[in-house]
Amino acid sequence: MAYSKLHIKAETTSDHINNVMYMEYLEKARKVWYQFCLSHDVRAMVVNINADYKREMFDQERLTIHTETERVGRTSFTLKQTIINEENELVLSANAVLAVVDRQTKAKTHVPQAIRELVAKKEPLQPLMTN
Fold it and tell me: Would you write out the chain's pLDDT as a tens digit for each of its 131 residues?
């Protein structure tokens, strides 16, 4: 499965990281996947996300978010995401289903072949250069 990794530092004005921030961190980690889709003339939109909170997160904690393709359907694909803390403990696991829509018509469309080919690869998805 193709994958991406994002290394971040948790930041908040209090000691404890609010659960809503977990979702923001997952969204940041999906950015490279959104960019990949846009480069193939489609947009990916989260239509379902299921998260299982395993551990508490704290301010200034260093985290790694691992995202990988799990399944590709006709008009959507699923990403499995995990957040791991600096002690290598699982903080959160989630599955995000992304629907694919045509950039011009905004209508649901088939998952491009390039995304399907990602599933077969066991290599990192590289960020695209942006201006």
Answer: 788 899 999 887 778 888 889 999 999 999 999 999 999 999 999 999 999 999 999 889 999 999 999 999 999 999 999 999 999 999 999 999 999 999 999 999 999 998 888 777 777 787 654 43
Read off the amino acid at residue 113. Answer: Q
Taking CB atoms within 8 Å and a gap of at least 24, the contacts of 122-125 are 122/1, 122/2, 122/3, 123/2, 123/3, 124/2, 124/3, 124/4, 124/5, 125/2, 125/3, 125/4, 125/32, 125/33, 125/36
- Amino acid of residue 59: D
Q: What is the SS3 assignment for 73? A: coil
